[in-house]
Amino acid sequence: MGTANKEIEEFIRYVVEDGSNYRMEEMDKLYTADMAILFPSKDGSIVAAPREDVFAEFAARGSNGESALSTEYRILHLEEQGDDATVLLYRRMSESAAPFLYELRLKRGGVRGWLVAGETVTPWPDPETAGAFLPPRQTV
User: Fold this and answer.
1) How far apart are CA 27 and CA 18, in angstroms?
2) Does residue 48 contact residue 38 with C-beta atoms inside 8 Å?
3) What is the DSSP letter of 127?
4) C-alpha 139, offset from chain centre
5) Which pTM was predicted?
6) Does the pLDDT of residue 52 top 80, yes or no?
7) What are the E-state strand segments in 1-140?
């Protein structure tokens, strides 16, 4: 993997460590001001949680003295295109929480070289349907 990818890998480590430990001042340096997290709701619609809401949730957990979240993650895919990058992560926040697939959209900048500009969080795929994004072919 190239030097730039190593920088992104290191950046992701900071994102996971600082977020999992509710280090709000550090998190502030890792995200763009307009970032949002997209995730599906139970009714199938997509919710866009703005930075303020996401940060408020993490800050509340930290000030309530909650235990740190798990730092379990695995980079599944990393793609850099100029000043933008996309990283797919397997991420599990706790043994009591389901694993999720995180798509992090990054922009070059910030004190660590990159900033998270947005995230999309989806439930980890069911192995029975993995790769089945198209229906079976029809016979004609």
Assistant:
1) 6
2) yes
3) T
4) 40
5) 0.88
6) yes
7) 36-40, 46-50, 72-81, 84-92, 100-108, 114-123
